[in-house]
Amino acid sequence: MSGSETIAEYYQRYGLGLPGAGQVSAYRIENVTPADSFPPLRRDFYKIKLLHSVQGILSYADRRIEIREPALILANPRIPHAWQRLAGHPSGYACLFTEEFVASPLQTAAVAGSPLFRVGSMPVLFPPPAAVDRLSGLFEQLLQEMPSAYIHRQEVLRNYVQLLLHESLKLVPAAAAYPPGLAAERLSARFLELLARQFPLASPQQTLMLRNVNEFARHLAVHPNHLNKALKAVTGQTTTAHIAAHLTAEARALLRHSDWSLAEIGAGLGFEHTSNFNTFFKKQTRQAPQQYRRQVRGNSYNLD
User: Rounded to an integer, what distance in angstroms lies between the CA atom of residue 301 and that of residue 4?
Assistant: First the structure.
């Protein structure tokens, strides 16, 4: 398994076979053999889980949260979490999706910047019965649409995921205040929000203001080593890894949904030469940018 677990690897680990779509999937929790516990894992996808009939402990960064039914768990791919089941047989729903999938064709604000998933936010919400009913209905509709042969199925699935996110956001103001984070968490949150705010790129004339570790550290008034140490402690990933992940996600979106040239995309992302952008993208994805663009445009309804 790679450093970050993918949706396909997650499905294999739970004996679910292959996910119905590469960048989004959903299932009923009662259809999965429950794990009494699992160690901290880092994944490359987000997860929304509506959990019933179980009690346990979710360990998230440096915190332990007691889970009682019903609970809405918001798993962040940047921060490993662990689970220990104490009692009950879990039921409910889970939805897994990548950042690239949930963004609209022209991209909206990054999921990483959402109050649901930013570092230091509440990773568990406790919805009232009416909210549980609304969320359950959306999960059921999502599950019904997953095997559909409708040509615009991906857009329908994306809309259901967006609705799940909005229903979850409605619960945030009513959630109990989360204890103030440690200094490392606060610095990590500031960095990740600053990074997310640079995207999406709106035009070929727009370029990133902050492009590397030194520039981010200077903007945050800290030493690069201190920033890297804080991020590594909180998220398990380095500053460079976070920047590379966002650059790769934005490059994929632009290659897929825009008509910008490779030179324009590379320049917007801070690469002085197109060859440097090609080298970076191929290192991150194992595909050349032009190859990726041809592939996604030739299989626009099958890749998600």
Answer: 25
The verdict on domain 183-298 having CATH code 1.10.10.60 is yes
Pair 56, 118: CB distance under 8 Å: no
Q: What tens-digit pLDDT sequence spans the chain (304 residues)?
A: 345 677 878 787 776 766 655 678 888 988 877 666 565 566 778 889 999 888 888 877 667 788 877 899 888 877 777 788 888 888 899 998 887 787 654 344 456 556 677 666 667 888 889 999 999 999 999 999 988 888 888 889 989 998 998 898 888 754 443 444 568 888 888 888 888 888 888 888 888 988 899 999 998 888 999 999 988 888 888 999 999 988 998 898 899 888 999 999 999 999 999 999 999 999 999 999 999 999 887 754 333 3
Tell me where in the chain the CATH 2.60.120.280 domain(s) lie: 7-171
Residues 6+ apart with CB under 8 A from 63: 179
CB atoms within 10 A of CB 34: 15
CATH number, domain 7-171: 2.60.120.280
